[in-house]
Amino acid sequence: MLRTLLGEMPRQNNGLLEDAIETMVETIHLLQNEIEKNEDPSHDYRKLEIWTRGLVSSLDELEQSWYAASFFRQSVKAGYVDDMTIEEQAEYARYVYFYKNGFIRVFSVLDKLGTVLNDLFDLNTQKNKPHFSYFTVLRQFHYMKTHEGLAGQLSEIKDEYKSALNVLRKRRNAEVHYMNSEMQDDLWQRHQGLKDKVELEDLDQHLSELKQGLDMVCKSLSASFHYANKLWKKEGMHP
């Protein structure tokens, strides 16, 4: 959608994104087949189908946010906020909007995945923590010593992207709970010298961290749904 609005060609899925989406689409087909066979009187399969479709949409929105932020970043040339033209300030504002949208969505998608995993594998994480995150669900896997193959794989993916996730989490927390993350950067610089110009943050570094967050989400989704699909094909579906 955003690519069309930006005058770009529609996205051709490939790599990690393609694998994540195709794996979830396979899950949706498995659920639909089960609904057709058994009519799903408890609506458990239908619920999982809706949640999985939601994850596909959320992943798509995350990727689009990263792409749009990267698109608008190309128009930002100045190294200092005070040196920007009016047009450049507008492009920078658009970059900031989609960049923020991106790092917030990284954790939103992960938490939605955590809800699916908790329900799918009967982890009952909510008994220990009513409002749990994806990372709480990972700890619950290890605590219950269940589905250890999947739990180990998801933990390895988390550790692989630990540095970028920590940066994105701090920015998410600042944006959601305290103050705008880019305003924090400006405030810190103002403290260093009240008369100095405000240097622009490292936009390329920020986009690289956001892309790592996107990759981590793709790998986590792929691992989770590959595991579920394989398990269902082997043992049958028992939500």
UniProtKB/TrEMBL annotation:
Record Pfam families: HEPN_Cthe2314
Domain called Cthe-2314-like HEPN: residue spans: 51-229
UniProt protein name: Cthe-2314-like HEPN domain-containing protein
Protein species of origin: Paenibacillus rhizosphaerae
